[in-house]
Design brief:
Number of helices: 6
CATH topology: Rossmann fold
Strand order of the largest sheet: 2-1-3-4-6-5
Oligomer: single chain
CATH architecture: 3-Layer(aba) Sandwich
CATH superfamily: Vaccinia Virus protein VP39
Low-confidence stretches: none
Length: 181
């Protein structure tokens, strides 16, 4: 059974203005360090190509059910951008990432910061406040090295109606750099 919380990566998503803004801000957040291998959690997108150029190394992608299946391989850098809010069990994914991340490697994670439920995206299963995300990350054996809050929509979006205006107040995304505890 297909989950209503899973996105299909198609041209409508890839051409949305907020996606390009998020990718640009995310890439500027990600440190450039020597990496021989990377894993971008989720479908291959143009952002995966940008990661390969950024690190000058190949990046694999996942095609498995991230709630149930295990990850394989060894990677110096793993990215999980806008993924955990779609999963029933984000702890499972974070523990799987811990198992494939090389010693000294980094995990970059982005997710919407918790906001009132009526503003959640219809395809999100979780949207967590920062304290809950931090607890989840610590439980999975990671520590936060640094974080940044960003907005992902063009400024004109927030003035296009009442609900978008509320998003100006409540809607932020977290960019997190993580390492093993």
């Amino acid at each position: 059974m297909k989950s209503p919380y899973r996105n299909t990566i198609g041209s409508e998503y890839l051409n949305a203005p907020h996606v390009e803004i998020r990718w640009k801000k995310t890439l500027s957040f990600i440190d450039k360090f020597h990496a021989d291998s990377g894993l971008d959690i989720g479908d291959r997108t143009p952002f995966t190509d940008q990661l390969e150029a950024h690190y000058n190394c190949p990046f694999a992608n996942t095609t498995i059910d991230l709630d149930e299946k295990g990850l394989t391989g060894e990677y110096d850098v793993v990215t999980a951008m806008e993924v955990i809010e779609h999963l029933f069990n984000p702890l499972h994914l974070l523990k799987e990432i811990s198992g494939v991340l090389n010693e000294g490697g980094k995990l970059y994670l982005s997710t919407p910061k918790g906001k009132p439920y009526f503003l959640w995206s219809k395809d999100h299963f979780h949207e967590m406040r920062y304290d809950r995300i931090k607890t989840l990350i610590n439980r999975a054996g990671f520590r936060i090295i640094r974080k940044k809050e960003i907005r992902i929509h063009p400024i004109r979006f927030y003035f296009s109606g009442f609900r978008p205006l509320l998003r100006l107040i409540y809607d932020k995304h977290l960019l997190l750099e993580l390492a093993h505890e």
